[in-house]
């Protein structure tokens, strides 16, 4: 028994050392990423200094072209949007960003997912490397999984399912992201292939709604927040956004609502799928937003 | 207790320490065996109660019925009691019916009810019987079969009836195997329960290795493939034939990783507690025929079906035609055991039918020619793979639709995202090397049991790091727990 226990302790110790070494190596890959999602994630958490930041999930990621903002407004812009994310990620990112600087404008493209109790884990992946460095990240991750504080002790676990992207982003020189923006160049929505977007029997997550409210209150005093809702092919029931729009009204946050704007919603040539616009749609939409932004801010 | 859960990570070391400290404290005598059994029963029932406490009554019911059944059946085999075969059979059948009744109610009643309703509607009778819709008690199919096997063995006189209820209770509820087997035989497990062995360093080390390998198979291979295959669950109709074929391959390895992973972990936990449980898997995808496949896949169930269904039907000591029929019925039972759905029944029938064909043409025999050997492995894998489609799909329509797409959609587009494939390729490569090494006894590639300590240790560390890096840690349930 004694021999077994000694061997077991030794094995666990070797595993811990290996875990730390591999973790340091992966940390290095992430912080030195020269392209892709890891470069973007590190930039958003650690080095952003742009005047305008775009927040939101995949629709923000694919619909807002920073270059158009920069060319039209003569201000720097970065698209911080992330696939399958929500308010939890952006609230905690905001906490890190404001430690460094306060951006002049934040455009938050909202979608129902922002206040839905969806178990998608992409945003958790983005937050895990910052566990222990940002108290909001700590509390949010703990809320998602009560055992995370133990799991995250493993340096490798922080990069669980990230190995491929870390290697690629470290060595791939041509960045597929342009100032954080990813263009959906997957062609045009095919006629009749997709049904209109509907979300029946939705139950909103009160915690996320409260988080969204706190986020608005936080930003209101420091930066100019604009809420936007980008178009959905053939539109959708605006009731889906009533809770978020209610919060915007309560705190007097301007809203650029294009969810049912027929300029976009009736044109399948602007869409890659019902909820995501393609390159052409993104450019037309960004130009529209820039014009409205200009009027709103008198720039 | 789910072996891949965080709960297991902190609960099992506690159980392990308490158990072995207890063994050291009580010493090694007859009383110690009893105390150890009580401790293991307490642990097993506590873990079972954590899930749905009321279902522990089902476990207890089956334990009591089969214990009493075994005792009564045992009396017929003693010299004092004259053999009255008819009444012994009556006792056996009564006990079997009572033992199977919870399984029937929880697993099959709703299915039979829905079939009766459908047939009634087809005949013009509109009636709807209320289904029970009860959750299936954890491991019910496994411990029911284990207890049944014991009773039939007693009836046949293969073993004597267990007199000690405490030991029998532990035989039925032993925690490493209760949720998904292996289905142990009384002659293998009961003697181990009755013997209080001291801690065996070698056995415990082996246990840890099995535990680690099982964990790797579950979190890196099965759950990674599960996430991949499930993500295309509703989209397969829009996908090409090649993509659909790859998805079916994905499930084929997912179910292997999942069930073998569980079984290896159960074996590992058993060894760490001083028990040797049957190895349920023996490189099943390197089988050269479907007959060979069933000697390697879920071996404890195969043995059970062979001993208590196939042999009971007459086995091969009968006409050829009857023998083919016996094979078919045995695998029909296997299909029904897996689930109350026509898809499982068809899956069982496919396996039974192909084994009949193999037996007819002598394809179930060992192959000497290397080229034929490789072709047979490949062909068996493909047949098993297509049969799994019926196992996975909830309906016939879905299964036939997917098979149809594979054969008719010749579009070669490949739209899978790369990262999951990258992780899956790593996991499958490790599995492939290990299975090849063990199957063909290539010692230099069997890193887990390599003669150099540094290789063995390094390999185990690599498995741990790979699990942390590319494993899926969502404590997802094992597929076979549903059966």
Descriptive terms for the model:
heterodimer; A: 299 residues; alpha/beta; 5-stranded parallel β-sheet; two-stranded antiparallel ribbon; 13 helices; globular; B: 483 residues; mainly alpha; 18 helices
Tell me about this structure:
The complex is a heterodimer of chains A (299) and B (483). Chain A is an alpha/beta fold. Chain A is built from 13 helices and 7 strands. In chain A, strand 4 (224-229), helix 11 and strand 5 (255-257) form a beta-alpha-beta unit. In chain A, helix 2 packs across helix 9. The longest helix of chain A has 30 residues, at 2-31. Chain A is globular, with a radius of gyration of 21 Å. The termini of chain A are far apart. Chain B is globular, with a radius of gyration of 23 Å. Chain A binds chain B through residues 1, 3-4, 7-8, 11, 14-15, 18-19, 22, 147, 150-151, 154, 156-157, 159-161, 163-165, and chain B through 6, 20, 24, 199, 201, 204-205, 208, 418-419, 422-423, 457, 460-461, 464-465, 468-473.
Weakly predicted, low-confidence segments of chain B: none
Number of helices of chain A: 13
The proportion of residues forming helix of chain A, as a percent range, comes to 40-55%
| Mean pLDDT, all residues of chain A | 88
Largest interface: chains, residues each: A-B, 23 and 23 residues
Main beta sheet of chain B: strand number and arrangement?
A: none
Rg of chain A, rounded, reads 21 Å
| Share of residues in helices of chain B | over 70%
Largest sheet of chain A: 5 strands, parallel
Poorly predicted spans of chain A: none
Order of helices and strands of chain B: HHHHHHHHHHHHHHHHHH
Q: Please identify the oligomeric state.
A: heterodimer
Distance between the termini of chain A: 76 Å
| Beta-strand content estimate of chain B | under 5%
Structural class of chain B: mainly alpha
